[in-house]
Amino acid sequence: MNKKIAVIKGDGIGPEIVDEAEKVLNKVGEKFGHTFEYTDVLMGGCAIDATGVPLPQETIDICLASDSVLLGAVGGPKWDTLPGNLRPEAGLLGIRGAMKLFANIRPAKLIPALAGACPLKEEITKNGLDLVIVRELIGGAYFGARDTHVDENGVKHASDSMAYADYEIERICRVAFDMARKRGKKVHSVDKANVLDSSRLWREVAHKVAEEYPDVEFQDILVDNTAMQLVHNPAQFDVMVTENLFGDILSDEASMITGSLGMIPSASLGEGTLGLYEPIHGSAPDIAGQNKANPLATILSVAMMLRYSFDMGEEADAIEKAVDEVLAEGYRTGDIMSEGMKCVSCSEMGDLVAQKI
Ligand code: IPM
Ligand code: MN
């Protein structure tokens, strides 16, 4: 098969980690007889520098005309003082909206070879940790009406509204239930229905969708309790579905308890097969350009791309297996380094994984 991939290398370590992911993807292409065609496009800080805006129209057009989009990372201190709508992050929100990527899939799994890096006590993680957060990505407070103004008394006000329509909740719940069917058959719907109207609607719709999936165990859980349960007993979770802001926060928490933020991929999907794939970590400007970054989350993001956008399950398995093997052999980048392991650079890690394909 021939697939067109729009590539947003972005800022900081973005370019170096994406190069390694392309290296691995090219090896998959050779081995399985596919060609992957890359088109680099600008987004984030590099786009601001080159064009004055974080998301040029050309980038949107090319992404929409591709089979899939690969993203490194955007942002950095250089652009931190710009107004909200001109920051690199606005580019990310813009492309999610333009591509209608309402479903963000964030797996958090304790990798046996890295169990030592998990900050939780062994008695808590002994049952493992393998969950997926399905985060609504183009609604809620991120995309609701917002306002900043000074009133007649000189008092400054700012507001963001967390708004949801029933169909937005329904479609993301379906993604979660479909995913649970292929995994542990359990869904937790996370909300704050004891306080928020948007959460009460969320809960009502989630229950309706749950009725269509009698084979999937279903439970509501409040977001504050979820934050607590994640560190108390993370093994109880299989698929968690939640609104945009809650999902943003909980996915950082979940990734931290795997002990390996630098290892976690993500997929953002809409109605069709076009998706955007990115590591969940940031652009790490402090180590940019030093060939020190961990490319594994980006490499694993490419595995998700193969699985979800290109229906290439076998190829995706090959990448995930290669990563497991390289880790089992004791190779580590600096961020996941521990005693007795072999420390390698970003490009060496890419080489090692590519060799295993
Ligand atoms: C994420 C990030 C983004 C978000 C930021 C960079 C806009 O934190 O992908 O989780 O909040 O969605
Ligand atoms: Mn986040």
Textual characterization of the structure:
This protein has 357 residues and is an alpha/beta fold. It contains twelve helices and 14 strands. It has helices at 14-32, 45-51, 57-64, 88-98, 122-125, 166-181, 197-211, 223-232, 244-257, 296-308, 313-328, 346-356; strands spanning 2-10, 35-40, 68-73, 103-109, 130-136, 146-150, 156-160, 186-191, 217-222, 239-242, 265-269, 275-279, 331-332, 342-343. The strands form three sheets. The chain has a ten-stranded mixed beta sheet with strand order 2-1-3-12-11-4-5-10-8-9, sandwiched between helices. The longest helix is centred in the N-terminal third of the chain and has 19 residues, at 14-32. 47% of the residues are buried. 3-isopropylmalic acid binds next to α4.
Which cofactor or ligand species appear? 3-isopropylmalic acid, manganese (II) ion
The low-confidence parts are none
The beta-strand count equals 14
Say which CATH homologous superfamily of the largest domain is assigned: Isopropylmalate Dehydrogenase
Number of helices: 12
Calculate the terminal CA-CA distance, rounded to whole Å: 18 Å
Task: Name the helicity range.
Answer: 40-55%
* CATH class division of the largest domain: Alpha Beta
The biggest sheet amounts to: 10 strands, mixed
**CATH topology descriptor of the largest domain:** Isopropylmalate Dehydrogenase
